[in-house]
Design goal:
The chain is elongated. A hairpin with a 2-residue loop joins β3 and β4. About 45% of the residues lie in helices and about 20% in strands. The protein has a domain of about 70 residues: SpoA-like (Surface presentation of antigens (SPOA), Roll), CATH 2.30.330. It is an alpha+beta fold and about 160 residues long.
Length: about 160
């Protein structure tokens, strides 16, 4: 037999020994599991788990530096504001509202007139993402429609309407 053939045979014997040891370890583990399955008390196991979780939940309070006025608080507020400044919002104008039945809605065709609840010349509602923020009038700028704000709703009034 050549040296490489003997090494291969020795390697095969070593693999067989480790497989037998692994097989024995699995057999021992399965036998141990089978023997203890009938004896396992779930109440004790759950109580032990709850006790270990309770011990793990004790947290230490981190030490924090006190923030003093003028110590960079403005930059934190600016950073928070910068995060939302580029979020797009939808602005829409509401000319007026009305309620009609589906029967009358289906009868509408080209040239039909629908009466709205707002008087002619009355300012339009300016809505941002569906929330009233101002009243405005329609203007024409460079042959395009535009609006001129006539009354801006204060933040306090907007918050009051939400409540």
């Amino acid at each position: 037999m050549s040296d490489s053939t003997m090494e291969d045979a020795n390697a095969d014997d070593t693999d067989a020994d480790s497989a037998a040891e692994t097989g024995d370890a699995w057999a021992d583990a399965l036998a141990e599991q089978g023997a203890s399955e009938g004896e396992a008390d779930w109440g004790d196991a759950l109580a032990e788990q709850a006790a270990s979780e309770a011990a793990d939940t004790t947290l230490e309070k981190p030490e924090l530096d006190n923030l003093e006025e003028g110590s960079g608080g403005d930059s934190i507020e600016d950073a928070c504001l910068d995060v939302i400044l580029d979020i797009p919002v939808s602005i829409s104008l509401e000319v007026g509202k009305t309620k009609i039945s589906i029967r009358n809605l289906l009868k509408l065709n080209q040239g039909s007139v629908v009466e709205l609840d707002r008087l002619a010349g009355e300012p339009l509602d300016v809505l941002v993402n569906g929330t009233l923020i101002a009243h405005a009038e329609v203007v024409v700028v460079n042959e395009k429609y535009g609006i001129r704000l006539t009354d801006v709703i204060s933040a306090a009034e907007r918050i009051q309407k939400l409540q």
